[in-house]
Amino acid sequence: MKSFTQQTVLITGASRGIGAAIARRFSAVGMNVVIHYLQSHEAANETARSCMSHGSRVLTVTADLRSREQIIRMQEKLAHHDMIPDILVNNAGVSHYGMLSDITEEQWDDIMSINLKGTFLSTQQFMQPMITNKYGRIINVSSIWGISGASCEVAYSTAKGGINAFTKALAKELAPSGVTVNAVAPGAVDTLMMAGFDEQEKQAIENDIPAGRFAQPDEIASLVYFLALPESGYITGQIISPNGGWLT
């Protein structure tokens, strides 16, 4: 087995926010880092430059994770660069705020496709080399709302709840192959996903959180990094929620 710092990590949706913080955390120890993005080319390049400043080998790739064909092309590119991932972080996703009665069928399908189908397709495509190698880490970025549900976020909560169930079931399936599967389900994190709330709404949310503040992306990245470590190999099928005591 390769040493930890010689391994490759693929982070989907890594151009900014939590994904970018995860990429930087792995690059800090010199690992090979693959930064996936859909449209945010410049942001992905900025994250890549930050990772390369640590001496990491970095590759940026674009793909629509709703398309198996595009994921296959992404995998072929990674194979060409000898950067097939030992660690897969399924971070790409979108949120949606609004009453269920106002969501169109097209919006519902899109939320499910990006958050849930994309995780399924990426995992299915990249888990086979891990099974062959009898080693791997799959870490899914979920949400506190996938555990407890949230009013006006029914579609998003449903998609993240599906990721949690996917995580638990797949962990049992892959455990005999030495591959762990876990999910990180953050509470409120200070990223662009909070841009839909005004300052008064943000303050109200902070007041509900026992820690009295939002999480920083780097704090979520540290948990993802911990779950990827070789010594975390007995942790699998877990939904871990860093939420400042918001949900206990």
UniProtKB/TrEMBL annotation:
Keywords: Oxidoreductase
Domain Ketoreductase, chain residue ranges per copy: 7-187
GO biological process: monocarboxylic acid metabolic process
Keyword Oxidoreductase among record annotations: yes
Gene Ontology molecular function terms on file: oxidoreductase activity
Gene3D superfamilies recorded: NAD(P)-binding Rossmann-like Domain
Keyword 4Fe-4S: no
Protein family according to the UniProt entry: Belongs to the short-chain dehydrogenases/reductases (SDR) family.
PANTHER family: 3-OXOACYL-(ACYL-CARRIER-PROTEIN) REDUCTASE, 3-OXOACYL-[ACYL-CARRIER-PROTEIN] REDUCTASE FABG
Name of the molecule in the record: SDR family oxidoreductase
